[in-house]
Amino acid sequence: MPTRRPAGATERAGGGAAPPAAAARATPARGTAPPLQLSLQFADPVHRAVLARHRVARWIRAALAAPAEITVRIVDADEGRELNRTYRAKDYATNVLTFDYAREPVVVADLVLCAPVVEREAAEQGIGLDAHYAHLLVHGALHAQGFDHESDLEAGAMEARETAILARLGFADPYAGSDAPRITDHPGG
Q1: How do residues 26-70 score in pLDDT, each as one tens digit?
Q2: Where does the chain cross the membrane (predicted)?
Q3: pLDDT digit string (tens) for 130-159?
């Protein structure tokens, strides 16, 4: 599994702004998504039905601007907490961790999603489980390509990109409304 610090829910390895190449990349037009080699692992099988391989691949491909080799691992709270503690020094399970290993010429990354956290957040936000998984997978795929949200400017750009991608996939704006949840590195949200 991961051998370096993850991008995390709010940060990429190395931190700071997205590299200029990442900031300039456009999300590909419909029908032109780059190739994706996907490995889907279920340490926690509870959401296997929601996360059919073809759906996960479609959601990730929508966010890609380059060919990618991505492993998606669905974990329980214990593994999610251990990974977050080990790689981010945060002692709680978070919704998504992104371990980015390479960006060019092929994006190589692991996306780790904690099933109990994703389920709890979806219920708290009153959204479908599939919509929340789609959002977190798009979010993680963008982190893997160098996008971040450390500053308000970066956050606005990343959220706009996520919203546009999710709209193309048929999902509502996850940031709509004044009390809309943000993806943060804080427990529960």
Answers
A1: 444 455 779 999 999 999 888 898 899 999 999 999 999 999 999
A2: none
A3: 999 999 999 999 999 999 999 999 999 999
132 is an annotated ligand-binding site residue: no
Tokens for 130? 């599939």
The single-letter code of the amino acid at 48 is: R
CA 149 – CA 5 distance, rounded (Å): 17
Does the annotation place 139 within a ligand binding site?
A: yes
Cα–Cα distance measured from residue 185 to residue 159, given in angstroms and rounded to the nearest whole number: 15
Who's near 175: CB < 8 A, 6+ residues apart? 159, 162, 163, 182
Residues in the chain, how many? 189
Domain chopping of the chain, boundaries: 30-168
Class of domain 30-168: alpha beta
List the beta strands (DSSP E) in 21-67. Answer: 36-42
Containing 74, the helix (H) or strand (E) segment is strand 68-75
